[in-house]
């Protein structure tokens, strides 16, 4: 076994017994990495609870060509406690983001840009005013899915390439349609050409404009946008439907329960 050094963000920890723990990390150089943790190295956060939101520097042993190993030395270098006002909302957005990330990342697939953006997201979720969290979260999710190859096409029709508009061609329709199968907007002609072929989600022009703006924004710019919760929910419904269809790594839907949690959490802090 060879020893390696890296840093990483904790995606999840699982305690199998008193003496057995595994930890799944997002590392800039290897993508997702799962390590066994021996009792003496066991990671615990405040008051003995498992540590969840942290950046670690660590060394680990990995069998050549193997995909899992065990943790040797570990040092938390940044811990995100989410203790500022709006704690529940912060925790919910951060856990939702990391759950999604954990589902989308694969082993031995380095994603250094995605790693840096995730760190920035966690820092900002820990420190920004709570009213900026919905914009931050939405901005992060769109950056994430774009980097990982699931960017929705909102510019033109995914079928014929023509500009898809809410008005004009289809006065009776109060909005646009997004095809989950094709990963983009779909015009009325293409839609009529293939009736019943597509899983479609209605989209207002307002929502499309907002999503386009979020996709063009830095995290800081996204966090300055006032994104109403109703819009955030609509966006997340679209994103999760898109990912469920297109990503082979998405596991059963438990991972997306955060949408509901998120709505409850934000209601709880009056956002
Ligand atoms: Zn078309």
List the defining traits of the structure above.
271 residues; alpha+beta; 5-stranded mixed barrel; 8 helices; globular; binds zinc ion
Give the structure's gist in a few sentences.
With 271 residues, the chain is of the alpha+beta class. The chain has 8 helices and 8 strands, in the order E-E-E-E-E-H-H-H-E-E-H-E-H-H-H-H.
The fraction of residues in strands falls at: 15-25%
- Residue ranges: pLDDT <50 for 5 or more in a row? 167-173
Query: Helicity range of the residues?
Result: 25-40%
Known CATH architecture of the domain at 1-93: Beta Barrel
Rg from Cα: 20 Å
Q: Pairing-aware structural class of the strands and helices?
A: alpha+beta
What is the spatial order of strands in the main beta sheet?
1-2-3-5-4
- Ligand identities: zinc ion
Describe the model.
With 271 residues, this protein is an alpha+beta fold. The chain has a domain at 1-93: OB fold (Dihydrolipoamide Acetyltransferase, E2P) (Beta Barrel). It has helices at 87-104, 112-127, 133-147, 188-193, 205-216, 219-223, 229-246, 258-268; strands at residues 2-17, 20-27, 31-37, 54-62, 68-79, 176-179, 184-186, 200-203. Strands 1-2-3-5-4 form a 5-stranded mixed β-barrel. A hairpin with a 3-residue loop joins strand 2 and strand 3. Helix 1 (87-104) packs parallel to helix 3 and helix 2 (112-127) runs antiparallel to helix 3 (133-147). The longest helix is centred in the middle third of the chain and has 18 residues, at 87-104. Residues 157, 159-160, 162, 187, 189-190 line the site of zinc ion.
